[in-house]
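Input/output pair, single chain:
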Amino acid sequence: MRRRAALACLALLAGCATPGRDARLRPGASTEADVVALYGAPKRVWPEADGGRTLEYSSQPLGQHCWMVRLAADGRLRGVEDTLAPAGRARVVPGMTPEQVSRLLGAERSRVFYRLSGEEVWDWTIAPDGSDYGMRFNVHFKDGAVLRASQSMVFPNRRFPGLD
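Output:
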């Protein structure tokens, strides 16, 4: 019985591993094959100017992270970044193209076009700010360029709001 409980705990902990917190991934030593063996095929692969590649592991639409795994030209791990963390979101600036934003933040949760304002708004689910509400990071595009970014709160982060 104890052994079964211990195995269940290990399985749960393994499910929590992410590229950004995985001690098995070591910059300079781990390879693209190691990353793919641990996390499966990436959502997208971005070529880099220096011959390297970036593997995108986005957890959208329900997750709150986008892990960008940066690889050198020789296929070795350079580093891992959660681009939906505050520092990544802060790099979105007016004038960026949709491709630049997608490359920076990863796949969005949704896109909505507002006919009256002429804006297309993309959003990403992000970590809440400590309240009971979920959070979204929104990027507003107009005429093919970032106009501004904003955040919005959504329904409470509870399974059955009002019944607790």
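The chain has a mean pLDDT of 87. The CA atoms of residues 52 and 74 lie 7 Å apart.
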